[in-house]
Write a sequence for this structure.
């Protein structure tokens, strides 16, 4: 756990080039000979003010890797947890966040096969995705279908692979089953809804904030307000409960989710976004919420015939060495994409310099589908009410999240 | 929990006909007009001395039921837990134990279809199986293949359905996976081993007491002694761990089992036999072991990509209303039986009057495969060293388990 996060900010602050972002024209953003590249840098764990765009040495190709000229990057809830240091064993800042991107192969390591310069690809990266250039082992790289845009590709990999593996590898979704998905409007939620529609007669119960309902109503069978008593509503429709609960929240919802399960049903915890929102911002409040997670008695599972699972795609890839299984899943997903049965939902595109506003949007649960960092996008001018640039604001003091409201940029809605 | 078990013994003792078992010839054990039948009666929760064979009123057929003339009954570890009152919400003694039997349909309730008088069947019963006649809803009754013996049928239902559902419904066993099964020599263990052999390239790690190894070596890929450091041995063979752990034990083994799981692996707790053996005989020691079961943190499952499940076939049938799913599973299993891909392993046959010795054998983990109560079997004469009948011994004082050694009957090994 990132105990040292807050303390390390000062000592790493000097490493950040404060001029970057003001002069993006100076940066060579294409061509193979540049030694430096633009990247989003997290200077230390904490609030939005720990993020900025800076020049950074270009990564060097290692054996078995490809170098990708990045076009688009995916922004996930996990990135907010990383920013706050709210993950197990985070790397030492300063670091470049980001776990997925799409782009064009720029070079391939010697004796490394499967890809050629110019290939359009999407890739998982173990940090360092939010940059103009990324190096990653070929095991984590997948060719994009011709008709897929770079933004779609960056919205595809993590969300659809996670959704697919939870539904079909962990929970064994079959005809006639029912699925409850929290955050139905988010990237994984929308992927889950689409994948459920590929199986006959699957009922999807979605939970989302009220303001998203109009936009996502057609993607699920039943939609409930996050703040309503959805337990009661679901029990009315399906008195036996549901077969699969996908929960990216954490805390009281775990007990609720288990209660809603049918016998032989599977509850999957795939994230812990409650740890980021609300009052759980400091390390100590995080640790408190961690320890208070309701533990599960295996004998209760035995009596009730229930299954509880945890799923972390990034651990599966980068800690547990399951990249060949993920490759198989990706192949199946690309088939479904080519058959036009699934299509990633992109919420909005943001320049690297707009990463704070993008994070604020996902933090506020404002998004419907995926937020994308578009590496080639020019930052949208700030709204008229603003007097300072967001990326320079609040550098010296802890910046409370949410006070960016008055200087919000307009996202580029896809 | 059965707090009142011990206290109730005295008040129920008078209900037991102490002469039964001495005069089995007086009982009309066939023909439709008899008003009474022989049955094993549990007078109160406790040791073996709480069991005896007695006359009891014949059950009356209810709507939707069939009446079965019982030929053979299955004896399971769960029956020992019932005897001790070590289950949740046990019924009030005196009661007739037993959850499965095979026999011949003797009558069918009005407006009830699917079975005819004379059909050879196997059935689940919610208690009351260990008797000459049983009534149970048709939902829990399955026709036997012609070549299946009654003993095989009584050994088939619970063990194979449980093994199948755990491997294929809960854990999704596929080609190339590995399975660890505790109590590999028991009824479920042998069913698991056989079912695994129906899937290509599945590795089965079995754990069993040393003295069983010669008998069951061919049924599993790797066999380990219960008292050896099997964790180390398995890690040597399969450093990544195993895909499925089936654990009928409880307590320290839960942690061990979870540790041995591969990422995306499934640990299934399907019983709690440690609660019966050893020192956990009284209610209080039971409660202690119950509460000390290691609870599982869902966030640890998330980090490690692991699945934990509980499975209780009887709860699934009698509490959770899943009999149509079980029927589907039984159909698949009978196909496999007819194709000679699976065959129940019967350890030994015992007369109803020998139920104490049979229970002692399963308690001592002496069995390889299933123990069967053969309703038509005459008790085997006691061995030469005995002077009293076991079924009459120790009625007035608490009888320590295991002191039957000196008056053991020879089981009829199948």
């Amino acid at each position: 756990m990132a105990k040292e996060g807050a303390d390390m900010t000062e000592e790493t602050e000097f490493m950040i080039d404060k001029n970057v972002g003001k002069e993006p024209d100076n940066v060579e953003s294409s061509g193979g000979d540049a030694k430096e590249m633009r990247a989003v840098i997290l200077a230390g764990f904490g609030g939005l003010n720990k993020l900025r765009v800076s020049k950074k040495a270009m990564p060097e190709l290692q054996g078995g890797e490809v170098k990708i000229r990045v076009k688009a990057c995916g922004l996930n809830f996990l990135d907010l947890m990383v920013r706050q240091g709210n993950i197990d064993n985070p790397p030492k800042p300063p670091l470049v966040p980001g776990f997925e991107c799409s782009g064009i192969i720029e070079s391939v390591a010697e004796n490394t096969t499967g890809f050629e310069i110019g290939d359009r690809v999407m890739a998982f990266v173990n940090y360092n995705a939010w940059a103009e250039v990324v190096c990653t082992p070929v095991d984590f790289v997948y060719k994009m279908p011709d008709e897929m845009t770079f933004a779609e590709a960056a919205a595809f990999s993590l969300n659809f692979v996670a959704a697919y593996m939870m539904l079909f590898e962990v929970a064994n979704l079959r005809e006639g089953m029912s699925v409850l998905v929290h955050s139905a409007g988010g990237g994984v939620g929308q992927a889950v809804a689409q994948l459920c529609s590929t199986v006959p007669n699957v009922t999807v119960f979605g939970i989302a904030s009220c303001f998203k309902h109009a936009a996502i109503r057609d993607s699920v069978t039943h939609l409930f307000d996050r703040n309503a008593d959805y337990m009661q509503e679901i029990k009315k429709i399906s008195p036996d409960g549901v077969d699969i609960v996908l929960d990216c929240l954490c805390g009281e919802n775990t007990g609720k989710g288990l209660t809603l399960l049918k016998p032989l049903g599977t509850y999957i915890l795939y994230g812990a976004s409650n740890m980021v929102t609300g009052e759980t911002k400091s390390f100590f409040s995080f640790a408190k919420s961690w320890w208070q997670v309701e533990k599960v008695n295996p004998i209760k599972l035995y009596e009730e015939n229930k299954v509880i699972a945890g799923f972390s795609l990034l651990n599966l890839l980068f800690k547990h060495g399951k990249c060949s299984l993920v490759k198989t899943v990706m192949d199946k997903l690309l088939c479904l994409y080519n058959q036009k049965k699934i299509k990633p939902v992109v919420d909005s595109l943001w320049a690297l310099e707009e990463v704070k506003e993008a994070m604020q949007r996902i933090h506020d649960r404002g998004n419907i589908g995926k937020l994308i960092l578009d590496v080639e996008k020019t930052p949208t001018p700030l709204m008229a009410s603003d007097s300072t640039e967001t990326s320079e604001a609040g550098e010296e003091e802890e910046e409370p999240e949410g006070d960016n409201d008055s200087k919000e940029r307009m996202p580029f809605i896809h």
Observations:
- The radius of gyration of chain B is 21 Å.
- The interface with chain A takes residues 88, 165, 169-170, 172, 250, 254, 263-264, 266, 269-272, 290, 293-312, 315-316, 320, 322, 325 of chain B (CB under 8 Å).
